Amino acid sequence: MRFEEKYSGNVFIGSTDNFEESTTVLYGMPMDWTVSFRPGSRFGPPRIREASLVHEEYSHYLRRELSEIAYYDAGDIPLAFGNPEKSLAQISDFVSRVLDAGKMPLGMGGEHLVTWPVVQEVYKRYPDLAIIHIDGHADLRTDYEGEPYSHSTPLRKISELIGGANVYQFGIRSMTKEEVEYTEEAGIHFFPFDVLEPLKSCLPELAGRPVYVTIDIDALDPAHAPGTGTPEPGGITTKELLASIHAIAKSDLTIVGADLVEVAPAYDPTEQTPITAAKLIREMLLGFTAK
User: Fold this and answer.
1) Least crowded by CB within 10 Å, which of 64, 83, 115, 149?
2) pLDDT (tens digit, 9 = 90+) per residue, 231-287?
3) Cβ(247)–Cβ(199) under 8 Å?
């Protein structure tokens, strides 16, 4: 597949048609093969694109417009249905080519396991990589009911790959006792329940480092984003998550990749979840794309 041939027809607002001139590549990872509760996040990326039409291309938060950046929406990667290992390999191949072309990958899930192959590829290029993880769940299990390929395991795999001291977790409010013990053993920077203030306190120590940002939509309280596979009460507001993205965007971090995952549109007939996700993606595009 040549990059100028999109995987799917719909595109996010403001996308350029020229891959070569782009600095960021937006793409979908429509996989939900390992979810532990409700499937449906594979339908997230196309619905987020459709929902983007409700938004302006200008962000007054960042005083920037999508026309001021060059980003390319490559569509959704066609993944091997029901086959986690092959799907992860397909994601790896795609992201590797994006990175080899000198572009920043910005992915839309799909379940959270899709982050694992992306980080593997980014880490090959940036051995000093740090992870900012915003989520309602720790995702630090070694397996889920005996299955190591699960949406509850990606941050455990990532931590073991890059070292726990390079992982920063925010907003976590659902975890096992073993996961909490692992954060202490591995030296993970673990901030349960809240996001914005602890994130702000950590940004100075990450200044100048390559950072990958992964956001699970269920970091938001279900009142703000009911359309997700594993909703967890007690989460943050949309306003706080937007402010967190803006804090990262205005910091001295070097963002080398990012994703937003776990949008499952079927569980939100109001469509506020994909609409919210589309706004978050717009802010990530504008805030994380190199100036």
Assistant:
1) 83
2) 999 999 999 999 999 999 999 999 999 999 999 999 999 999 999 999 999 999 999
3) yes
- Ligand-binding site membership of 224 (annotated): no
Does domain 24-288 match CATH 3.40.800.10?
A: yes
Is 218 annotated as belonging to a binding site?
yes
Kind plus residue range of the DSSP H or E element containing 279: helix 272-288
**Tokens 């994909």 -> residue:** 274
Q: Is 100 annotated as a binding residue?
A: no
**In the chain, where are the structural domains located?**
24-288
Residue 139 known to bind ligand? yes
Helix axes of 154-162 and 115-125: crossing angle, nearest 10 degrees: 10
Please provide residue 189's backbone torsions phi and psi, each rounded to the nearest 5 degrees: -80, 100
Distance CA 40, CA 91 (A): 19
- Annotated ligand binding at 112? The verdict is yes
Q: Would you say 135 is a known binding-site residue?
A: yes
